[in-house]
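From the methods appendix. Each design record in this collection lists the tokenized structure first, followed by the designed amino acid sequence. Records were kept in a plain field format so they could be parsed without special tools. The example shown here is representative of the layout used throughout.

RECORD:
FOLD TOKENS (384 positions):
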């Protein structure tokens, strides 16, 4: 659409209406020089094999267009899949984008639960205004019954994160399979970005559930966030359409080279995952001692409720060399702050900075309300 500008006697090109109306995501990435407990990244580093592979790269390697399929073969074999059942992507962000491009028309409905990863909103609304959100209650558990009731004949794409970000909650396998069965006319994408830190997955159900696609990332446990590598796994017929809307060179060759080295080093992955799992136990125990309400997590982070002083806590923690993520703008998360779990020493530093910072800002657990604390504790007991 071209609109005349009478004031300047010029014309301004406008984008599609959906682009004008879609939300924007602006991650607060500036000046992240402190301990990075804000973006759920690997807080240590990638496998030493990755570093060796990167150092061995030659100038000639950089002159070639990347070949994705050979690495897809390696990844598929690693996960016990056929090559056609795997599509590597430029992070899970691109995977979400491609899913929306492949399956959503303007009149189609997409369904998500909130709070969850904001890029679902961004990419869905780029394609259709028909986004339906089902809000979790105060427990932050997945709203299964209401979610099932929200499925209609117009639902074309369903996205569920398990473990969910920012809550850390799991969605049971039986619930995910029931959602897929209730919407055979739609594609169910299960985002398992944080799979490694709990181990629950529906990857083994792909052959039996034709409308199921699983997304995984190599940013978190593998420590490749800067290289941007993700994957989609699922029915080859469905992935054929996603592959069609993808660039053949969407994942750069440096990332592909690093990925093949990363998945070989299973010992490193097991070590780092255990660091996070033990650190998560320590973090939740530490929050109990501090009297900070939190939601038991299956991911590499914990969501806690600070209340009105959440911004003050973020500032105080930064002053003590630790970065946290304020999640207060997420639906139903006013006053909530998220902390990433990493190595043992990073958990120790995070807890100590939290103890000092809470004291400095004059935080009192009563400020978040007794009812909120009881809701979280009840959720914790059910989780255990």
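DESIGN:
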């Amino acid at each position: 659409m071209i609109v005349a500008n009478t004031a300047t006697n010029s014309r301004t090109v406008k984008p599609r209406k959906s682009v004008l109306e879609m939300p924007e995501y602006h991650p607060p990435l500036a000046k992240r020089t402190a301990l990075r407990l804000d973006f759920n990244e690997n807080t240590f580093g990638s496998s030493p094999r990755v570093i060796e592979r990167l150092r061995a790269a030659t100038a000639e390697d950089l002159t070639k267009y990347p070949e994705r399929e050979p690495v897809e073969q390696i990844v598929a074999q690693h996960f016990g899949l056929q090559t056609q059942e795997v599509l590597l992507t430029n992070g899970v962000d691109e995977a979400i984008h491609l899913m929306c491009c492949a399956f959503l028309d303007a009149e189609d409905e997409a369904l998500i639960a909130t709070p969850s990863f904001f890029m679902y909103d961004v990419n869905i609304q780029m394609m259709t205004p028909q986004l339906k959100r089902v809000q979790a209650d105060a427990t932050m558990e997945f709203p299964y019954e209401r979610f099932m009731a929200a499925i209609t004949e117009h639902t074309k794409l369903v996205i569920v994160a398990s473990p969910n970000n920012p809550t850390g909650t799991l969605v049971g396998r039986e619930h995910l399979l029931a959602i897929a069965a209730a919407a055979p006319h739609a594609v169910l994408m299960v985002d398992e970005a944080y799979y490694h830190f709990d181990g629950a997955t529906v990857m083994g159900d792909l052959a039996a559930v034709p409308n199921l696609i699983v997304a995984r990332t190599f940013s978190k446990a593998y420590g490749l966030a800067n290289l941007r590598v993700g994957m989609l796994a699922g029915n080859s017929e469905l992935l054929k359409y996603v592959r069609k809307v993808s660039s053949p060179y969407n994942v750069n060759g440096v990332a592909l080279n690093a990925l093949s080295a990363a998945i070989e080093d299973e010992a490193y992955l097991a070590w780092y995952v255990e660091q996070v799992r033990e650190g998560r136990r320590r973090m939740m125990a530490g929050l109990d001692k501090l009297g900070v309400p939190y939601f038991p997590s299956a991911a590499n982070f914990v969501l806690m409720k600070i209340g009105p002083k959440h911004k003050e806590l973020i500032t105080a923690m930064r002053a003590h060399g630790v970065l946290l993520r304020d999640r207060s703008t997420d639906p139903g998360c006013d006053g909530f702050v998220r902390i990433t779990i990493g190595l043992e020493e990073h958990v120790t530093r995070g807890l100590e900075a939290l103890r000092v910072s809470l004291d400095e800002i004059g935080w009192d657990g009563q400020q978040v309300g007794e009812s909120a604390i009881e809701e979280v504790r009840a959720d914790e007991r059910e989780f255990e």
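APPENDIX NOTE: The first helix runs from residue 17 to 21.
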